[in-house]
Write a structure and sequence with these properties.
The complex is a heterodimer of chains A (about 130) and B (about 260). Chain A has about 130 residues and is an all-alpha fold. Chain A is built from 9 helices and no strands. The relative contact order of chain A is 0.17. The longest helix of chain B is centred in the N-terminal third of the chain and has 16 residues. Classes of the chains: A mainly alpha (about 130), B alpha/beta (about 260). Chains A and B meet through helix 1, helix 6, helix 7 and helix 9 of A and helix 10 of B.
């Protein structure tokens, strides 16, 4: 697989058109995880547009995005930054050995109130 | 009136009370919630990747079942609601996903998004009517209550079409119907920190504390939610300055069930 093919694949699974971005930054301004995003939502959009995926694939931001859709709601150009973050995260966790959470890390942090919903959603987001 | 109902896995385990109370209240209000057969967990998060298909099939199965049983599907957990409603939109508008899902499922008749997905709160508003709830109230609540919407009910608003995403009113109207005083506070539609609780606990801690502080500052005496994960984050990762409960618990209290 060439890098170009990989970029194309990420663009395709994101389902959003990064070329429509006008770099206003509203998505990042509204992001509740902003401080924990080493690469900000608007940068995900611009960097994918430029094909700079190596840094995106290494980012910590993919583990801290909350999928809250605030960025999508706020974008005046109909771009979905959350879907770009998800396309990168999907690409990472689909690689062998790149799951975001390890099964043995779970039992110590499970308390008795934890809803199934949290375990299921974290596994869906972080693991394949 | 009977409505097909999708409880979801959390309501069958940690949030059993949410399920039981919701059914009791609905029956008092004249709605019978009929649990669909053989439902499977929806996965709790909507898969955004356009190549995801297997992760959407349990929602499609539930939707198809409801299509054949009254045409409406009632949800209660905000996460189930978000996943099922967004998947339904895909089945309605995305030819590729519709084709691949139907190709796999081989239903008697292809499913194309015909079912109407209804959250319990929408059912209270449109099927029962808040006026009728008001009439059925035996113990008006008489306290200041902050509605916590979180994200899943509201966003993305184009698909969820639940309420105004920046200035929602449905839970406040509900609070008024049960005799309480709604408190409007800025963080009511902010995220609680969601599933990141399993990866980076500090983030939901900060987010949940902010939500509670914001509600308290505006005078709320308690906060209500429709989402088991919001409830967990606010209760466990918040700092405990306000009690947090399911909206159905308050409905039961008001109706005296
Ligand atoms: S979906 Fe992710 S990137 Fe977008 S606003 Fe929410 S946390 Fe930020
Ligand atoms: S809000 Fe939309 S247009 Fe503005 S920077 Fe973000 S993605 Fe680009
Ligand atoms: S959202 Fe939850 S609780 Fe609801 S069914 Fe799906 S995973 Fe299970
Ligand atoms: S607020 Fe938190 S759990 Fe609730 S809907 Fe958002 S992410 Fe979910």
């Amino acid at each position: 697989m060439t890098k170009e093919e990989r970029i194309e694949n990420i663009k395709r699974i994101s389902g959003t058109d990064v070329r429509k971005c006008m770099k206003c930054g509203k998505c990042s301004g509204r992001c509740p995880a902003f401080k924990d995003m080493d690469i900000k939502p608007h940068q995900f959009v611009t960097m994918l547009g430029k094909g700079e995926i190596d840094k995106l694939l290494e980012s910590k931001a993919i583990w801290n995005c909350l999928s809250c859709m605030a960025c999508v709601e706020r974008c005046p150009r109909g771009v979905a930054p959350a879907a770009v973050v998800e396309a990168i995260r999907d690409t990472v966790v689909r690689m062998q050995g790149k799951n975001g959470i390890k099964a043995e890390e779970i039992p110590p942090i499970v308390d008795e109130l934890i809803p199934q919903q949290l375990l299921v959603s974290a596994y869906r987001k972080y693991n394949k | 009136m009977k409505i097909s109902y999708y409880p979801g896995c959390t309501l069958k385990t940690k949030a059993k009370d949410l399920d039981k109370i919701a059914r009791l209240c609905a029956s008092v209000l004249g709605v019978e919630m009929e649990e669909i057969e053989n439902w499977q967990c929806c996965g709790a998060v909507y898969p955004m990747g356009t190549d995801e298909i297997a992760t959407k099939l349990s929602a499609v199965r539930a939707l198809d079942h409801a299509k054949k049983n009254g045409g409406k599907l009632l949800t209660l957990c905000s996460a189930c609601h978000n996943v099922i409603k967004r998947t339904n939109e895909d089945m309605k508008t995305n030819k590729d996903i519709r084709f691949r899902a139907n190709n796999y499922l081989q239903l008697d008749e292809p499913y194309g998004g015909e079912t109407e997905v209804l959250h319990y709160l929408e059912m209270l508003k449109t099927v029962v009517g808040f006026d009728n709830i008001k009439k059925a109230v035996k113990n008006p609540l008489n306290r200041k209550i902050g509605a916590y919407y979180g994200c899943l009910l509201l966003r993305p608003s184009g698909v969820m079409a639940f309420d105004n995403p920046e200035n929602p009113t449905i839970i406040e109207d509900f609070i008024r119907a049960i005799g309480g005083t709604p408190v409007i506070y800025p963080f009511r539609n902010e995220c609680c920190g969601a599933y990141v609780a399993l990866k980076n606990k500090d983030l939901p801690k900060q987010k949940s504390c902010k939500v509670l502080a914001s509600a308290k500052e505006k005078g709320a005496e308690e906060v209500i939610t429709a989402c088991p994960l919001c409830l967990y984050n606010l209760q466990v990762n918040g700092d405990g300055i306000l009690p947090v409960r399911y909206f159905t618990e308050l409905l039961a209290e008001a109706l005296g069930v």
